[in-house]
Amino acid sequence: MEMPVRMSSGFNLPRYLSMQPLFQEMESAELERLSQGCTLNRLARGDMVFRFGEPCDAFHVAVTGQVKLFVLSPAGAEKVIEIVSPGHSFAEALMFTDRPYILNAQALTDSLVLSIGKAAVVTEIESDPRFALRMLAGISRRLHGLVHDVEAYALHSGLQRVIGYLLREHSVEDCASGEVITVSLPVSKATIASRLSLTPEYFSRVLHELEAAGLVRIDKRDVHIQDVQRLASYQPG
Questions:
Q1: Interior CA angle at 18 toward 116 and 28, to 5°?
Q2: CB atoms closer than 10 angstroms to residue 164
């Protein structure tokens, strides 16, 4: 269940807003004004940020924790669209459609989520067009990411998707041959599999294949990559 957090509890909302790329060029008075249209909610694991069909009158920022964006098929099957990490915003574009939410958002862990009301955002856009441009840039980055995902699903095998996920934050060029790195899976394997449009069973099978090939070592949620360059170039025999 959502629990509003008292702003007097030590959370400096204007300062937090000033550190976000979307708001970092705003003046102190603008940040103070924008903060008046914000609410900060504490969510337990499994709590909903919003549900499909609810009025979309705000966009949101994950302050701490992880938030899952997903849709449900008519049969009840879940497809994860995105896993939102701390400091990242979501539902910006939906807020401007004047339509209800078209997906669901749920806390994957205990989380703090900041909701920024549409009325406050519109006021700032009207007073400073640069704010609108920054919002458009953020929305464009998300669109680019979604297009990249569609391309990966269409052109890459399941094995390539898993390897790409494991190496998503590591440049092969920056890693020395034989360098060992550790990737901690932030959420359950089933959630990551859905995000990659794979079944949980296939995702686990690929991890075990990579482990059998000596490319990774799995320790619960930690995946120890034995050689980044070998993993990136791996082709099954």
A1: 95
A2: 13
- Residue 136 φ then ψ, to 5°: -65, -40
Please write the tens of the pLDDT for every residue from 197-236.
889 999 999 999 999 999 999 998 899 998 888 888 888 7
Q: What is the pLDDT of residues 107-161, one digit of tens each?
A: 999 999 999 999 988 888 888 887 778 777 777 776 777 777 777 666 678 898 8
Tell me if 63 sits within 8 A of 86, measured CB to CB: yes
Tell me the C-alpha distance between 61 and 92, whole Å: 10
Question: Distance of alpha carbon 165 from its chain centroid, rounded?
Answer: 13
Q: Hey, what domains does the chain have and what are their CATH numbers? A: 3-155 (2.60.120.10), 158-232 (1.10.10.10)
Residue showing tokens 């574009």: 93
